[in-house]
Amino acid sequence: MPRESEPDRPLDLPAAAKEAAIAALVALGLFGLLIGIRTDQGPTGALVFTTRFGALAVIVAAVFAATMLRAMFWRDAAFSVSRLVPASVKTAASGLAAYAAAAFLAFALLVPIIFYGNRYLLDLGILIVTYTMLGFGLNIVVGLAGLLDLGYVAFYAVGAYSYALIAQNFGLSFWICLPLAGILAAFAGILLGFPVLRLRGDYLAIVTLGFGEIIRLILLNWQKLTGGPNGIPGIPRPSFFGLPFNNSEHGFAATFGLHYSPTHRVVFLYYVILALALLTNWVTLRLRRLPIGRAWEALREDEIACRALGINTTTTKLTAFAMGAMFGGFAGAFFATRQGFISPESFTFTESALVLAIVVLGGMGSQLGVAAAAAVMLGGFELFREFDQYRMLVFGAAMVAIVIHQPRGLVATRAPSVSLRDHTDIPAATVRDARTESPG
Prior knowledge:
Helix content: 55-70%
Number of strands: 2
Structural class: mainly alpha
Low-confidence stretches: 1-7
Order of helices and strands: HEEHHHHHHHHHHHHHHHHH
CATH architecture of the largest domain: Orthogonal Bundle
Number of helices: 18
Strand content: under 5%
């Protein structure tokens, strides 16, 4: 029988006002120095304080009003963003979900054609695809194997410096240095994997964070090899089968009878990183269906049960670190050849945090989610660039809202790696007999 509706609770204004006042005081403490007082460097080099108490008062008043309304009317209501979406829209979206990946890929292929005359959007597209590839690589370690890695930028740096040093000292082309950079990065991943074989959880995260800082300090202090804080300039650019992208008679434009444009090199770089990202995605999807991929997922769910099943957790962890590091090395080699200059400042912990946020917000284990999160996060940074003072505040609030109301990421569903082709219905009598015969 349907449950009778509960009688409306009386409004407790003093309790609601007390809760709203506490929330307002917390907001005042959090934003008092962030919003209320701003420091700038004056003409003499001294700090100049500028007060913005009006904006602070608006934020505190908004927090007070929102908390007051929630305490009075929606205290026991479970808020869900999905309730705001009509059922017809949900049905249409579920039907179009199967075509989302194809549409995403088609748009990615057409980006250089659509935005050929806009150098800014082309560079932004290269940046998004680069971080998408980094997300694919970290997704193997974090999303599939369940190993929290906070030092993934170390493999990114190893790949970049490996390409720069090999290309400059041995004169090899980009296509020869690319696999070498990936192999060296995979070797660095194996070196990281051995010390953390018995660690998991927070301890594993701390060790990987320390590994990332060790690599950065080595790059900063080994000046004879890496150039130290000055970095490595003059890194060779990639060519199209030996044809450089310059205005010479043997260049790419002259060979194909085209009018020379610097955009040719940018478009070529975009398709190179897009091909590398698609290769990373394809290899990851294939590995998930192999025994090693299923071993990664078993390790993610329960390491003790994984050992009990006879899975060698040592090789499982090492292969996860090595594969993820190799793809990070590929992305690092591309970063080096695209920039033409690298320094330790490009490989800080912030990069690792950004890639990890892309994996977590996109949905751990979801390839489409990683691509969508990279586009949303990096595109969102550029979209709010004009609001420099409040950009990080709005962006952080959006991330918190996603984590609270969509804890499994933007794309929470993903196909299982193994499934039965023919579904077999088990009769209810069989289940009943099994329960009766069980010792419990």
